[in-house]
């Protein structure tokens, strides 16, 4: 969908949330109680998105916000985005451009 098929990009997730803590990603009730969250939730609901959980019933914590970290082959941080509230995300096209430039230079 995002044209990453032939690019050398590894996507990593962490269900233990250990890396979320190490990167200082938001984990609080305040990240759910704000205008940005309400706006994002209404937009997602209108598009038909529903929180149905995952197989096994584990949907994670709504208190844990996400983020994106691009690390080079030396594990140096090259790009960082920290979601402040539910639905807060970087511009996908801008992120794709940065990721492609990054992989072409490494």
Structure description:
With 106 residues, this protein is of the alpha+beta class. It contains 3 helices and 2 strands. It has helices at 18-22, 35-46, 92-104, and strands spanning 67-71, 77-82. The chain has a two-stranded antiparallel sheet with strand order 1-2. A hairpin with a 5-residue loop joins β1 (67-71) and β2. It is globular. It starts with 17 loop residues before the first helix and ends with a helix. The model has no long low-confidence stretch (mean pLDDT 78).
TL;DR?
The protein is of the alpha+beta class and 106 residues long. Helix content is 28%, strand content 10%.
Helix/strand structural class:
alpha+beta
| SSE order, one letter for each helix or strand | HHEEH
Which outline best applies? globular
Q: Indicate the proportion of strand residues.
A: 5-15%
State the major sheet.
2 strands, antiparallel
Rounded mean pLDDT score:
78
Give me the number of helical elements. 3
Low-confidence stretches are none
Straight-line N-to-C gap: 23 Å
Helix content: 25-40%
The number of distinct β-strands equals 2
In terms of topology, how is this protein built?
Elements: H1 18-22, H2 35-46, E1 67-71, E2 77-82, H3 92-104
Antiparallel strand pairs: 1-2
List key phrases describing it.
single chain; 106 residues; alpha+beta; two-stranded antiparallel sheet; 3 helices
